[in-house]
Amino acid sequence: MDVTIHDVAARAGVSVATASRALSGQRGVRQANRDNVVAAASELGYEPNVVAASLRSRTTHTIGMVVPRIGNPFFATLVEEVEKQLQDGKRSLLLANSDYRPEVERRQVQALLDRRVDALLLIPCHRERSGEALAAAAARIPVVQLDLRVDGFDGSWVGVDNESGMHELVRHLGAGRTVYVGSEPTDSAAQSRLEGYRRAVGGGEVLLGDFSKEWGETAARRLLADGLPEVVVCGNDSIALGVLAELSRQGVGVPEDVRVTGFDDIPYAELSQPALTTVRQPQAEIAAEAVRVLHEHLAGGKPATRRTAIKPTLQIRSSA
């Protein structure tokens, strides 16, 4: 027979209410009684009914998080950093993947709402079409946009200053024919990095596809056919790794024949051949700030909307 809270209370010599408050960490319980209850629960092998406790307290101690693609090393690392921050506050993370499809994102957000998550961290996959899912969640629970954001949505966001990072990168590269290889501006990072590049160079040549290694390889073949520039500035590290791979296959030297840069500083960037010069997003700092803002919203009241753009840093390596 399963051990109940009544059994624990009887063993500890306290009321059921006292046993319940002691095990849930609530105030108003004498230390001696708390110690007796904890000891009794351990002796009896008591396992609390988490679902029932959640219904009573109206909290599940869980945070939902939806990312565009968990296989992307940048998002995977960001998830790890968020989880570390939540563990300090004794909250668990429920993770979902949208696969860069707004209709999937809507279903994933609804699934997390159905599981009664206390709040949501959303990396919206589209700067316009993610608005419906974001609004649906924000109407029920606290929501913080992380890394990416929806155009015109009046809510909290924590991410990086993409334009500042692109400006620093272009300034490091100096003069010479430069081509930007990035993603179509369907998400806010793609948009702001493209705009940042164009402002930094006063226009510039551009090739747009998506944030993938495969697109980087395709773009490199186009550049080889049309004539290599002196510098290839890539919208993220995955694109840059694809460019490096294709140039290597074609016998093109980096940085001797062309310089290549990325953006994000994913774990593979330093391991590439040559090591990739890139813009580093401080993911631990971004995650810590996002969770802090989320806890501020969870604390109650009507906290002010937070828009935090953290400055990235330039990581100069062998590729440029």
From TrEMBL:
GO terms for molecular function: DNA binding. Keywords: DNA-binding, Transcription, Transcription regulation. SMART domains: HTH_LACI. Residues 3-57 form the HTH lacI-type domain. It comes from the Bacteria. Pfam families: LacI, Peripla_BP_3. This is LacI family DNA-binding transcriptional regulator. It comes from Saccharopolyspora halophila.
